[in-house]
């Protein structure tokens, strides 16, 4: 009896020591992060966004005016590399979530991105790396293969760098705050709204200052300034390193998902218990991957629940479970979260497909229109995007200060409306914006025909460029709802250890949408004839761009219907926020037994206090 008492006393002492260590680690973690880290993280992201926007916003002009590429070839080049830069974040996210962590992934990606910007800046400075100028845009000599290869190498480097930056920065910034639902509901501000507001300010600066320099000073400075901005962003990010809350990666999330599938397949012939409470749970095993709370059992996709059936063999290995044979409820629900998110996520693919080439074509439209604000000042075509950005910035403030409090009165939701409702509104407004784009193109060509300018691709049509303003405003409003709601949805509904991967899903969506968009544009260009081609290489006035816009409108309308159906059947993830008390209470300790076939054993020893 004395020996048994000593053993129990030793266990209690070890438990207290372990508890004290965990409390010390938690206290240390609470000292890190918070508002004080935002100047460093957001200055990095602002400089990065400034660099990326200044680098890519006017790139269609660089390819068509400096490298003399045909419009469709130039647009497809940008879209293809845009697709690549949206695919690489999936790889970067897996690296961050598996072993490198978000901090080091951001630094590595930023350095590679900077190398790509430097190489393209060098090509813009040295005349030998560009074809001869062609102001008339008739019978121009295109860039040689070697000149194009330098361009491709630069774009590949920036695409790889994006893979380390895109999926990690917004999630790394969110890691600095308590993002549990109770904490989010108690705050009077939405992190994602203000994150997008800061990014919009950086983009606005790039579209005004950098694009003006590119069009009026030169491409050397026009690309060099974003490269300098990117270098400053790396320095700012590293400078705040000691303040960051750096969550440790807990192994590859894809391995955990695969383990659940394999375990469920191995137990496909086992009989499911009637009580879901008899499924395997292990709080200690899941502690590192459920910091903000454990996922509760849900009735959807119950086939995966077979992975948590406890058999005699599992009971024998209870101290060191074989995760390829048995999975906890939390790990099963991680997989269910991803499966539930996929239909909603896929609705964004066709939206990107619809909008992938719009920016390039609108810039070409604007180049043919009257852009004078005064006798001496013209708006650069690529700078028209500032109206979309300004609308988004104003919209985010109005959304936060007016719309949310108003909607909260009727819905009772602290956020006003749900993420799914917010995204649906954005998709609907995007359809309206594309309809307006088609109508404006019809008007532009009518004026061109009236002044006999249909066969003059370099002529300025006497119609104000501000006819394009309504579609830019509508796209800005759509972004307030769709873009911010989409990112918030992916962050909130993904398992906490897979948030970089979830953010990468957003980029993968853009990648797939861009490639499908390239396929659509290529097929339209190929099969709409040589004489009355919808998307001609040189003379947009003789094209049928309005027909292309109507095609895109149809795609978006079908996509909206698909999204509404998916959102209607979506189930939000069930999350239990857990708080540990300092002193264990004997009456709160619950032993759950299982009686399966002829075997008996402890399934779980847990003490949870729900808040």
From TrEMBL:
Signal peptide bounds: none
Domain of life: Eukaryota
Its membrane topology: Multi-pass membrane protein
GO molecular function, one term: transmembrane transporter activity
Region described as Disordered: 1-30
Biased composition (Basic and acidic residues): 1-20
Cited Pfam families: PTR2
Keyword RNA-binding (UniProt): no
Gene Ontology cellular-component annotations: membrane
InterPro entries in the record: MFS_trans_sf, POT_fam
Bilayer-spanning residue ranges: 103-129, 149-173, 194-213, 219-239, 341-362, 382-399, 420-440, 460-484, 505-527, 547-570
Localization in the cell: Membrane
Family recorded in the similarity comment: Belongs to the major facilitator superfamily. Proton-dependent oligopeptide transporter (POT/PTR) (TC 2.A.17) family.
PANTHER family, per database record: OLIGOPEPTIDE TRANSPORTER-RELATED
Descriptive protein name: NITRATE TRANSPORTER 1
Species classification: Eukaryota, Viridiplantae, Streptophyta, Embryophyta, Tracheophyta
